[in-house]
Amino acid sequence: MKNKSVVVSGAGPVGLAAALALARQGIEVCVLEAEADIPHDLRAGTFHPPTVEMLSALGVGDALLAQGIPVRQWQIRDRKTGVVAEFDLGVLADLTPYPFRLHCEQHKLSELLREALNGMPNVRILFSHRCTDYVEDANGVTVQFENSNGAGEMRAGYIIGADGSRSVVRKTMGVEFEGFTWPERFLVFATSYDLREQGFTGNAYIADPDEWSAIFTQPHDGPPGIWRVAFPIPPEVEDSEVLTDDFVQAKIQGILSPEREYPILYRSVYRVHQRVAKNFRVGRALLAGDAAHINNPLGGMGLNSGIHDAVNLASKLGDVLLNDASTDVLDLYDRQRRLTNVEYVQAITIRNKRLLEERDPTVREQRLNELRAIAANPAEARAYLINSSMIASVRRADEIQ
Ligand SMILES: Cc1cc2nc3c(=O)[nH]c(=O)nc-3n(C[C@H](O)[C@H](O)[C@H](O)COP(=O)(O)OP(=O)(O)OC[C@H]3O[C@@H](n4cnc5c(N)ncnc54)[C@H](O)[C@@H]3O)c2cc1C
Question: Is residue 365 part of a domain?
């Protein structure tokens, strides 16, 4: 008999969104999560308009809106001269009910998704269950896992690998993770000092050949929220030095004022990659989110594109499992989501990083001037925002056949 259930490896935001999108169609879903609970480490925190639309369609949009900070204006700045360009997402109000970036920690979305899934009889979320392997046959997949009792296995029609950048599912599929790793790491820290006092919008990118940075508000424990700041760290500087108070203070004082100390709530260092899986589908296994693609955080596109994968995939898998659609639609998922990740997410995030870090003063001035001109021209600013808010990438995916 045809197995109509799906195993999702990974209870990150993408795995849980895929599970919810499948479960709402009545499909039986089992989510395997290696950790004992939803990880609360601080990672992505920006939701673009199409993502908020998709999450609203899944029934968790209002709750996310209630917890998040809507950010309509964002800036590109030069570290020495100040604001280069300011953009207002409000000009897209005719295209989306959510013409802003919604800032909210990703684990808060995961909790909302879990809450929605918990009430559904066709869903199981198994924590402390690490997916270790799967084997495919004509009728489905046998998924192997490990938990505190040892090894076990379960049957399903399909498996979704939403198990992050080191995805076991991707490795079992034998799919290459093509791309590269940036030589510098990123230092991310948060301060409760309100950068609005110095003219910053809720999201800002600061260009500088050595000390470029990215800044965005997060709700944290509620209003007024906190500010997260990211800086590049050269390969030769040790983490132990980067994480000291003196190092972090010097960074923030460099963009604000050396006259005072700023309260620092947390800090961490992480490595950044640009990689895309060569295939998002092999037979009955499909990849979504970081398992399928990773990128630098400049532009806030990684998690967003993962949610776009989850929604796109769940709809097609639903067609296959419930409406006997040809499995060719799963190859369409691969084409739509892989191509748009390469054409938009990878291209835009690499371009954003190169803009901020440009060393050649002539090229740098030319690029910043281009941005000044775009921001000053309403039609060009609108086109720029349609691209950077990911509306263009979702439209493009829909066009691919
Ligand atoms: C340190 C860090 C900072 C980041 N900061 C930003 C940022 O500032 N802005 C931004 O846009 N993006 C950022 N990102 C990227 C962003 O967090 C990801 O794009 C997002 O988490 C993708 O969600 P996901 O569900 O695909 O993967 P993940 O969130 O990685 O979730 C994968 C889940 O799978 C589980 N898992 C892994 N292996 C297995 C297994 N074998 N079996 C079962 N479960 C498994 C993991 O425990 C995890 O819960 C950051 C990433 C990292 C690592």
Answer: no
